[in-house]
Each structure stands twice: as structure tokens, then as C-alpha cells.
Amino acid sequence: MAHDVFVLAGVLAFAMSGALQAVGRRMDVVGICSLGVVTAVGGGILRDLLIGAVPPAALTDWTLVPVALVGSLIVFWSHGRWTVPRRPMLVLDALGLGLFCVEGTVKALGFGLNPYASAVVGMLTGVGGGVIRDVLAGQIPSVFRHGSRLYVIPALAGGGITAALWSAGHFSLLALLAVAATVSAIRIASLRFRWRAASPRDLDLDVG
Amino acid sequence: MAHDVFVLAGVLAFAMSGALQAVGRRMDVVGICSLGVVTAVGGGILRDLLIGAVPPAALTDWTLVPVALVGSLIVFWSHGRWTVPRRPMLVLDALGLGLFCVEGTVKALGFGLNPYASAVVGMLTGVGGGVIRDVLAGQIPSVFRHGSRLYVIPALAGGGITAALWSAGHFSLLALLAVAATVSAIRIASLRFRWRAASPRDLDLDVG
Amino acid sequence: MAHDVFVLAGVLAFAMSGALQAVGRRMDVVGICSLGVVTAVGGGILRDLLIGAVPPAALTDWTLVPVALVGSLIVFWSHGRWTVPRRPMLVLDALGLGLFCVEGTVKALGFGLNPYASAVVGMLTGVGGGVIRDVLAGQIPSVFRHGSRLYVIPALAGGGITAALWSAGHFSLLALLAVAATVSAIRIASLRFRWRAASPRDLDLDVG
Fold first, then answer.
1. How far is it, in rounded angstroms, from Cα C34 to Cα C17?
2. C-alpha–C-alpha distance, residues C67 and C73, integer Å
């Protein structure tokens, strides 16, 4: 139950980030809702296609797409009226990242994938929606860009730790929530303290 | 039989729209044929992956890809010789949209998806090919753009009405063709009367 | 065994081409590794989704992603220190193309697809990774562009000949390696002798 509330908060935050990107790229309400929904459920659809869970949860679960539409429409209506506050959005997005990478790993393990594959699938569940969002908005995925804050690495670590806990038999809801919270915390710390992954040599000279 | 002729007309129109886009983006004949085929069968492949109908119909049905290749090559050969007439193309594309969204919904229902999921799958069958076309051509999907004519909304309505007819037990070939024709008519009317979906406030000021 | 060495050489070459593209687009190490891995295994994942072989080999086979990561990190570390030599890279990439299109066709036939569908799947196995690489790098796929050297055509021919050999009952490891080698040789000859597919009339005037 608490779990569902968290997941829906993540869906809402992901959808708003997609919708905000769509507004910035001069899309109409169809584009805003499409980008919002795809960002929110794209990672989960990728996960379900890779593990063979068809039709994907985004289609069988009636709550996901409507919640994503609500998030998208909030952005649509608020645009030009008031500004969506940036910080709470980033915190919600980080919570979504943590929950999605843990949940994706758990679902992949439940479908019989080995721990290595499950961790990769979990990572893709967390980051996939944002990558599809950026491609549909005509931009290089932000998580790949020089100078971007950590996103893929904590998601992969979260998937890996979840799979390791499962292999070791330490697999409780509490442990899973702790992993998700740690991933979220690393993401938020990376934003706060401007952590970033290494870049090729000459790019690093630009930033110092 | 009549149904097959309509579907192949839609495939032809979708392929020509992909090929025209490829010509405009300075692609060679390989790019023109690839974009033509992907535009024509991309929505159907997306549908089949989501409902678990693998291998997809585009691979098992020998007619689809060859017809799409014919459409692509017509565009390739005609370029610089005579202009592909714009209006008949848009009408054929609208017919394809109507047929594909209804057919996609029916196929999804046949694979046991619930009506809600089937309507979404039907919409994706209709619009998916065009979205993949635009992404491969390095452009933001035209159906998302500010000022674009209605495309996703009639496709979603067509899928929804098809699923509702099925739920209510009113499910005849005639009813399905009527829904497809209505979707096509709305699309054509939207082009004729310049209907468009709402955009965020400040963008709307540009258009008036 | 020899086969596996060749495939891993192809994976390495594909990964390095993705990583090089990522460096050119100012990505950090996360983007470099992601683009490298996706380029190396993207075609195979596309193949496995289309034929219903889930989870895809890229997830169940422990060697593919790590080898792709090694290739990506070589590019990352070498950047600014020494230049990745262009010619050996292109030869390795051509070897990968030949092997992947033959292997993809064989795997599709083994999953019961008809020869026509299997040839298309084989072609997609060979070219899919590069197309996804270019889309993620924000560029029109290079294999579609006016003036590009032959890539899709030899891959499709390789898939077609493999499927024809299978239909005719002439199906030995030697024959398959000969087909793969021929595809690679055509690709290399196309680079050496500047072969290219036809373009629309007015574009051809530019090149002469």
C-alpha cells in the first residue's frame, strides 16, 4: 500500500518531467500528455518487453497512465500561470528512480532472470523513461551528457544490491525500501554536491 | 477482402509519407526504403510486441513490406520528375489511420487484453509508425508539435469506440468500418478546417 | 569456439564505434559506455524481441555486455592520449556486420520464422545497433544518409543467402562463414571503392 503510493508519486514526478520538457519544446497538449505518459511508463514497458511480461503493466494496471495524465495536465495548465517548483520535482524524481530500479529488479527476478540480468533490467526500468523522453524531444539523453549529475550509476547500484540481497536470501520489504531510499539519497546528494561521472580528458579541462 | 485492400492502401500511403520525409532529409534509396517501410509497419510491430504476437505480422505476412517498398520506390523514382500530389496522400494517410487504429484494437482484444488496454494499443498502431519515422529523420514527432492538426485524438477515440462496441456486444464488420471511416473523416476535417489541440498559454498567443 | 571469438570481435568493434560517437557528442563516461553497449547488443536485442526469444541473449549471456564495456572504456581512456586507428576499426565493424546478419538469420530460422522473415531479422541484427546508436546521439542514422557506403544492402543479401541455403538444405558452418566473409568483403570493398546506393536525382547532381 505504502509501496503503491510511492510508485504513483514516482509516476507523477516522471510524468511532470516529461511534460515540462514537452512545453519547452513547443508541443501542444497532445505532445505534453504523450511525453508525460511515455516518461512515466516507458521504463516499465521496456522492462516488461525484455522479461516477456506482455501485455506490460502500463496497459494492464489502470492507475499508471491516468496518474501520468494528471501529472502532464498539471504542467499544461500551470504553464504561464505559476511555475512548477524545481526542487520538489527533483526530489520526487529521485524517489521514482530509487523505487523503479528496485521494483524492476524484483520483477525481473520473479520472472526467472539471473541476478546479473535482473540488475540491468532494474537500471533500465529507472532510466529508460527519461531516455525515451529526451529522444522524442529531439535531444541527446540528458543522463549521457558531459557534466550531468549521477543517475544511471545509482540506478545500476540499486539494481545490483537488490539482486545481491535476493541471492543471499536477505529479501524483506524493509531491505528493499532501504535500497531504494539509498539510491534516491545518492541522486539527491549528487545534485546538491554537483557530483558527476568522469568525462574524456579534454572535456574535463572545460569544467576544471 | 475489401478490408485487405484498404489496409494495403493505408500501408502504401504511410510508406510514401515516410519516403517523402526521407527525401527531404537527403537520404539515399536505402534510407528512403527503410523510412518508408518503418513508417508503414512500425505501428503494427509496436502493437504486436505489446500484445505478445511475435513474430509480428509485418514479418509473417508477405504482402506488407513489399507493398511498402513499392510506395517508397514510387517516391524515389518520381522525385525530380513529378511531384507526389499532396491531397490524395493526406486522404490515404487518413484512411490508413482510421483502419489501423480499429484493426489494432480488434487484434489486441483478440489477444485477451482488456478494452482500456486495447484502445491504447489501437491508437499506438495508428500513430506509432509516424512517430518512429520522425525520430529516425531527426525531428520531433509532428503529431506532438504546437499547431499540428488532430491525429492522436481521433485515433484514440476510434480505439475507444471499437473497444466499447466490443464490450457491448455490438461488433460487426460494418460497425468497425463505420468507426474507421469516422476517424478518417475527423482527421480530414481537422486538416480542412485547421482544427488543432490546445497548446500552453504563451504559445497560443503566437497563433491567436 | 572460433565463432565465439569472431562474435566477440564484432561486439568489441561495434562497442568502440558507439563509444567514439559518444565522445564526439561530448558525453561523459556513462554516455560512452551506454552508447557502446547499446551499439554492440542493440541489434541482437531487437532480433530477440521480434522472434520472441526473451529475455534476450544480451541479458542471459554474461560475456556480451562486459566485452562491450571493455571496448567502450578503451575508447574512453585512449581519448586525448592516442587515436583509435580508423582502418582496423572499420574492418572489425565489417566483420561484425557479416557475422551478426548470418547469426541473426540462423537464430530466427531456429525459432521457426519463415526464410523471408528470417532474412529481414538477420539484416536488422546487423544494422540495428548502429541505427539506435545514431538516434541516441541525436543524428540521422548514417546508413540512411546520401553518399553513405553500402551497409544495409550487404546485410540483407547475407541474410537472404543464409535463408536460401537453409531452404535448400545446404547448411554447414563452413557455408555460413563463407556468407559472413562475403558480406564483410562487400562492405570493405564498398568503403575502398566508394560504392554507394542511388540517391534521388537532384542529390546525385551534387556528388556527380
1. 12
2. 10
Peptide bond into A154 cis (omega under 30): no
Q: Is C46 on the interface with A (CB under 8 A)?
A: no
CB pairs under 8 A between B and C: 89
Residues 115-144 on B with a CB inside 8 Å of A are 116-117, 120-121, 131, 135, 138-141, 143-144
3-state helix, strand, coil in chain C (%, to 5): 75, 0, 25
Q: Do C65 and A114 touch (CB under 8 A)?
A: no
Instruction: Assess C188–B contact: CB distance below 8 Å, yes or no.
Output: no
Rg, Å, chain B Cα set: 17
Determine the pLDDT at residue C83.
Answer: 77
What are the backbone angles phi and psi of residue C99, rounded to the nearest 5°?
-70, -40
Determine contact: B207 vs chain A, CB below 8 A: no
Q: Say if residue B86 is exposed, middle or buried (CB neighbours under 10 Å; 0-12, 13-18, 19+).
A: exposed
pLDDT in tens, B127-149: 999 999 999 999 999 999 998 99
Q: Report the largest interatomic distance among the alpha carbons of chain C, rounded to a whole angstrom.
A: 52
Nearest Cβ partner of A55 from B50, B135, B152?
B50
Min distance B194 CA to chain A CA atoms (Å): 14
Q: What is the Cα–Cα distance from B131 to A72, expressed in whole angstroms?
A: 19
Grouped pLDDT means (10 residues each) for chain A, 208 residues: 75 93 94 97 98 96 95 92 81 91 96 97 97 96 93 96 94 91 95 91 56
- Residue in chain A nearest B114 by alpha carbon: A60
Secondary structure (DSSP) of B38-83: HHHHHHHHHHHHHHT--S-HHHH-TTHHHHHHHHHHHHHHHTTTSP
Whether residue A121 and residue C76 make contact (CB cut-off 8 A), yes or no, is no
> What's the CA angle centered on B133, arms C133 and B144, to 5 degrees?
105
- Interface pTM, i.e. ipTM: 0.92
Q: CA C1, C4, C5: angle at the middle one, nearest 5? A: 95
> What is the residue whose three cell numbers read 529522444?
A135
Q: For residue range A93-119, what is the model confidence (pLDDT) as tens digits?
A: 899 999 999 999 999 999 999 999 999
Residue type present at position C111: F
Q: How far is CA A44 from CA A35, A146, C152, in A?
A: 15, 26, 31
DSSP secondary structure letter of residue B85: P
Query: Residue B208: pLDDT above 50?
Result: no
How many CB atoms lie under 10 A from the CB of residue A62?
Answer: 11
* C-alpha closest to that of A125 among A107, A101, A142, A108: A101
Is A59's Cβ below 8 Å from some Cβ in B?
A: yes
Nearest to A54 among B50, B141, B201 (CB): B50
Q: At C134, which amino acid appears?
A: D
Q: CB-based contact (8 Å) between B31 and chain C?
A: yes
Mind telling me how many Å the CA of A81 is from chain C's nearest CA? 32
Give the Cα separation of B110 and A55 in Å (integer).
13
The residue written with cell numbers 539471473 in the block is: A114
Judged on CB neighbours under 10 Å (0-12, 13-18, 19+), B69 is middle
The pTM assigned to this predicted structure is 0.94
A59 vs B113: CB contact, 8 Å cut-off?
Answer: yes
